[in-house]
Amino acid sequence: MTVDPRTVGYGFTLSPAGLGIDANATPEATFFFGLYGDASVAGTTQTYTDPADYIAALDAATGLATAWDPGASDEVYALAVNGPTVYACGEFTGIGGQSRRYIAALDAETALATAWNPDASDIVIALAVDGSTVYAGGAFTRIGGRARNRIAALDAETGLATTWNTSASGEVYALAVSGSMVYAGGDFMSIGGAARHNLAALDAATGLSTPWDPDLYGTVYTLALSGSTIYAGGAFRSSGDLPRAVGIAAFEIPTAVTLESFEATAAVDAVMLSWRTTLEVQHLGFHVYRALDASGPYDRRTETIICGRNPYVFTDVDVRPGRTYYYRLCAVSLDGREVSIGHTAVTIAAQWSTVLHGSRPNPFVGTTEVRFSLARPGHVTLGVFDVRGRLVKQLASGDRRAGEHVLRWDGCDNKGRRVSAGLYLYRLDASGTTYTNRVVRLRDH
Questions:
Q1: Which of 82, 55, 57, 52 shows the shortest CA–CA distance to 67?
Q2: How far apart are CA 313 and CA 286, in angstroms?
Q3: What does the pLDDT look like over 199-248, one tens digit per residue?
Q4: Residue 363: cis peptide before it, omega within 30 degrees of 0
Q5: Spatial contact of 410 and 369, defined as CB atoms under 8 Å apart
């Protein structure tokens, strides 16, 4: 395949043209590409003299243009392929036989525009697709029916903007998605609620900038991810105090996990470990290690990496009464490196007693933990009552094992309504005995 640079503006390799490749394609693959200007596309056996109308599909084996022809009205800057759909963005106002402003979804078979229509207020320059979400960057201030400053997350089915609202101070020219992170490059000084110069990592859940800050001086036009390395190309000359090759650099993305809590709860024959995170960057999961002394040595207790839904849980079943166990939590990066991020310890009682402990925190605003231990397994009930003795929230009712237990009260009643501030009693009934304690709920801020 050859593209005549005289008809392509700045030429194929130097233009902000987009290239989309279906990763699940068969050997009879198709390349979808957008051009910065009209182009004549030539194959080895025949030449197409009609303009490519800014977007085309090429046979991956022969390089010849296929019959797929959406016919954009103006320049196409980026493409992303997701199954039977080709997402396109640029300066066009019509594509695939429909009026579409700057962004569209095209049928990969028919080349017709689908009903998906986010209708951007200005040009869209960058695209990235992750499952049911299409990320868009550009110069727009409104897209998908909502005000969004130059970067947005769109529902891949409806085209509506999601609640993800990270807001960039300048144009976004490049996007890349990896796990729970969205990387954005462009010509901005702030994004995701923080000062970031032209390159940033954004939390895919909250839209906030992560602590990662390469601090580039100059515009970023393109991004590529490989493992824990992100490659950036553009017009920059330095990163912070470090000189860089003009316009191109590679950055190692460190594993970043912010641990909110790491707790151990003891039973007669097991230790239940639970932890919660607020940030995970370039991250595969966790391993748990255990020692009989705080100084070690620590042996790994997890056979495979723990991953999945936050909060996380692991049960250590090889324990003995009367011993204290020390646990270390390690985060595992994409390249297999481990970093210790948390420690906790727990003692297995030689003999349990039935005790209702004080709640923590007390007083509380959001959620408080109620702890109790049982000398022997049996049926228990645990409820929260107001000062008049009326049941407010049933926390437990059923059989429980011997050992320690932790339950949480979120300050709501049995119907899910927030209760008023004041004094409450929580009562445990176990083995024919009733135990009572107090907790104070504070007024919401």
A1: 57
A2: 11
A3: 999 988 889 888 888 888 889 999 998 877 889 999 887 665 555 556 78
A4: yes
A5: no
Q: Give me 285's structure tokens.
A: 């999961």
Burial class (CB within 10 angstroms; exposed 0-12, middle 13-18, buried 19+) of 165 = middle
Task: In whole angstroms, give the CA distance from residue 95 to residue 89.
Answer: 10
The reply to whether the predicted model has a pTM over 0.70 is no
Contact by Cβ (8 Å): 307, 314? no
Q: Which two tokens stand for residue 231?
A: 């490659």
pLDDT of 315 > 90? The answer is: yes
What's the CA angle centered on 219, arms 57 and 256, to 5 degrees? 90
Spatial separation of the C-alpha atoms in residues 399 and 233, rounded to whole Å: 61
What is the sign of the dihedral through the CA atoms of 411, 413, 416 and 421? negative
Number of other residues whose CB lies within 10 A of the CB of residue 234: 23
Residue 410 · residue 331 · CB < 8 Å: no
List, for residues 101-115, the tens digit of each pLDDT value.
Answer: 999 999 999 999 999
Q: Which residues pair with 324 in a beta bridge?
A: 347
Residue 344: the pLDDT is 95
User: Any idea what DSSP says for residue 144?
Assistant: T
Residues in the chain: 445
Start-to-end Cα distance in the chain: 64
- From 243, 136, 150, 144, select the one nearest 192 (Cα to Cα): 150
With contact defined as beta carbons under 8 Å apart, do 318 and 327 qualify? Answer: no
Per DSSP, 7 falls in state G
Q: So what's the pLDDT on residue 238?
A: 65
Domains of the chain (ranges; CATH) run 2-252 (2.130.10.10), 256-347 (2.60.40.10), 355-441 (2.60.40.4070)
In DSSP terms, which residues pair with 313 in a beta bridge?
274
The structure tokens 């209708």 sit at: 119
87 touches 103 (CB < 8 A): yes
Q: Which residues pair with 289 in a beta bridge?
A: 300, 328
- CA-closest candidate to residue 107, choices 139, 137, 68: 68
Give the list of residues 6+ apart from residue 76 with CB closer than 8 angstroms, or none. Answer: 17, 18, 34, 35, 54, 55, 88, 89, 90, 92, 95
Whole-angstrom Cα distance, residue 441 to residue 94?
58
Residues 6+ apart with CB under 8 A from 387: 422, 423, 424, 425
Structure tokens of 180?
């729970």
What whole-number distance in Å separates Cα of residue 49 and Cα of residue 39? 9
